[in-house]
Amino acid sequence: MSTSLNETQATGSPKHYSVIIVGGGQAGLSMSYYLKQAGIDHLVVEKHTVTHTWRSQRWDAFCLVTPNWQCALPGYPYQGNDPHGFMKKDEIIAYLDGFIGMVNAPVLEHTEVLRAKPLAQGGYLVCTSQGDFTAGQVVVASGGYHTPIVPRMAERLPAGIRQIQSAEYRSPQALPEGGVLVVGSGQSGAQIAEDLHLAGRKVFLAVGQAPRCARFYRGRDVVDWLADMQYYDMAVQEHPLREGVRDNTNHYVTGRDGGRDIDLRKFATEGMELFGALEDFHDGKLRFTPNLKANLDDADDTYNRINASIDKYIDKHGIAAPPASTYAPVWSPGEERWALDLAQAGIGTIVWCIGFRPDFSWLEAPVFNGRGYPGHVRGVTAQDGLYLLGLPWLHTWGSGRFSGIARDAGYLAAIVSEKLGAQALAA
Predict the structure, then answer these.
(1) Distance from C-alpha of 141 to C-alpha of 389, rounded to nearest angstrom
(2) Is residue 9 predicted with pLDDT exceeding 60?
(3) Contact, 50 vs 29, CB < 8 A?
(4) Does domain 148-352 bear CATH number 3.50.50.60?
(5) CA angle 57, 405, 69 (to 5 degrees)
(6) What is the reported pTM?
(7) Domain ranges of the chain
(8) What are the E-state strand segments in 141-256?
């Protein structure tokens, strides 16, 4: 459902909504779901089309890394016949399409928010590429992954090398011939490296400090164990790292082919070449930090530590399960390699998998910290009537995922409703 431009400008002054939601992904649509239930008028403003990112920024073999049962968007839980499987890209889109149809949100698509700022008399002015609006309250649900990170060093690489960011990667067949350097070993980097490796491409991987975890342990998916241990209910304020957990890189694992570990050491025994973090490019050679061994060891330490916490839970509750085990490395690097000649290695493509930067430059409100990140407590900012939704660890681990968005959206919708009720009584 779309709001027409003629409607928004017919009165000659900005059309007013009780709430404007910026972003039409699963977060914005979840907020719309609860506002519709409460009978609160609102508008969702989406720069592209609803759930655009899932359709345009995922590779062909992409699948969920969390089991299907964790797909729990509000009013629309997973109802397929494989709750412990991992939906592939087309299945995820079908799930989202069902959610979109069920919510039937009032959405203005292909509309960019250019500016949003508080008004002196209260409420907000929201300027968009389709005209201006006002709102009593604003929910920023545009996520935190806006600008792909590519180092300036990339400008000095040979023109014949094709460079793409992880959001642009589609398949091994879509890349030029030759070796592929994947930079970064977080969830996207590790899975893209695996995709290329399984297709028989020669892969060079610059390994960062991302942790890893087991897919299955002691007879169950690790996610199932952690859910029973209430890890996914832990609020950010209860986490040992407190707000620092928001800076953590996600563990790499995969749901591909029914789910399995991603073991970079095993890939190395099969011909993938591993290096430490990419540092620079000089005289035709890539330079790497000699920290490959440390990064692999740290990732394995996290893997074993998570499994050890599951062991303690099993012992404490007397649960019958297969015996405990500890991961033992199947390969270790010898002398650290700190350089790689691009031409000699035959590298034709570099895939940058080093993340995204948030871009809230359009939001003119005094809520940002020194790193340009909006401060909040469970999505509620210090600016009256301004909220955030869909960010990683907004409240819990699931906040930026299908599993936790309903709880966060429902919480904020209740606050929005309460504020509107108070305003009505005061009027």
Answers:
(1) 5
(2) no
(3) yes
(4) yes
(5) 85
(6) 0.93
(7) 5-146+358-426, 148-352
(8) 147-148, 162-165, 179-183, 203-206, 216-217, 220-221
